Amino acid sequence: MTSTSARETQIVADPDVPLVRITREFDAPREKVFRAHTDPELVVQWQGPNGMEARVDHYDCRTGGSYRYVHVQDGQEYGFHGCFHEVRSPELIVQTFTFEGFPDGVALERLVLEELPGGRTRLTATSLVDSFEGRDAFLASGMDTGVREGYQRLDALLAG
Amino acid sequence: MTSTSARETQIVADPDVPLVRITREFDAPREKVFRAHTDPELVVQWQGPNGMEARVDHYDCRTGGSYRYVHVQDGQEYGFHGCFHEVRSPELIVQTFTFEGFPDGVALERLVLEELPGGRTRLTATSLVDSFEGRDAFLASGMDTGVREGYQRLDALLAG
Predict the structure, then answer these.
(1) What is the model's pTM?
(2) CB spacing of B130 vs A128 below 8 angstroms
(3) Across the interface, which of B64, B96, B126 has its CB nearest the CB of A85?
(4) Which residues in chain B are contacts of A84 at CB distance < 8 A?
(5) Is the separation of the CB atoms in A109 and A85 below 8 Å?
């Protein structure tokens, strides 16, 4: 892995287990980055690819809570849902994730936020599934575009 | 894998991914086996090793619900908690699982019940974690005794 500019999103396929690891740095304090992940009114402003409208069905971001949201593009709805295993402010969210277009696929996701000097934050997000085929199909689906564009909009939201 | 007697519990470490797969057959219809996993008053009667008293803190077994229970042995409490990603009666439960003695360890668990001829049921339970070291430590922890003894008590409960 080479060194990268601060705002470059790294998306890495783990060599040993069927997991994707995303790392990204933000020019904002950890509490603010955390809140952008837990407050549904903020989440819908940045998550997903450009040109996609997000609408929250429910988003009860606490340990033992659950969520569902939809992305709307060209009149087509794409649903996502899961439950929150643990929400530990301002550092950790462990949740499940299903894209309803593939209802039997479930990922276990872990978001870790670390404080960096200068009021900055490093985000590490992992997504674990039960097969390398499923993980590699997820990587090949164009998810990287949605992740990178979403984090660019999150940069703007955090700066606002 | 060799053929086994109907009530033998098989516990297999997947060679490719950090997952444990448990299979077991029961002399009872699927609906009854499913209910023994969703009704907390039944769950506490069979789950875990012999000599362990189980007590439910909360057990909201529905899609988006959560649970916590404790096992009590010799005055010592062992807590377990997680959330229910999907509960699809009478065939599927997908949930997360943490043993509170190792609070950063999270497993993604999937229970599948299949109908067999003669009113019998095949159970397949998988548990996925993010490292082979974690999976192998779980297997070496003596979990197999708790699983086998629990299913023997479940046999008795289903026959009652």
Answers:
(1) 0.94
(2) yes
(3) B96
(4) 83
(5) no
Take residue B102 and report the two structure tokens written for it.
Answer: 């190792």
Q: Which residues from chain B sit within 8 angstroms of residue A81, using beta carbons?
A: 64
Could you list the pLDDT tens digit for every one of the 160 residues in chain B? 444 456 799 999 999 999 999 999 999 999 999 999 999 999 999 998 898 899 999 999 999 999 999 999 888 999 999 999 999 999 999 999 999 999 989 999 999 999 999 999 999 999 999 999 999 998 998 889 999 999 999 999 999 8
Please enumerate residues of B whose Cβ is less than 8 A from a Cβ of A: 16-19, 63-66, 81-86, 94, 96, 98, 106, 108, 110, 126, 128, 130-132
Structure tokens at B42: 């039944």
Give the neighbor-by-neighbor strand order of the sheet with B66-73: B10-13, B19-26, B120-128, B107-116, B92-99, B76-88, B66-73, B53-59
ipTM score assigned to the predicted complex? 0.94
* A128 interaction partners in chain B (CB closer than 8 Å): 108, 128, 130
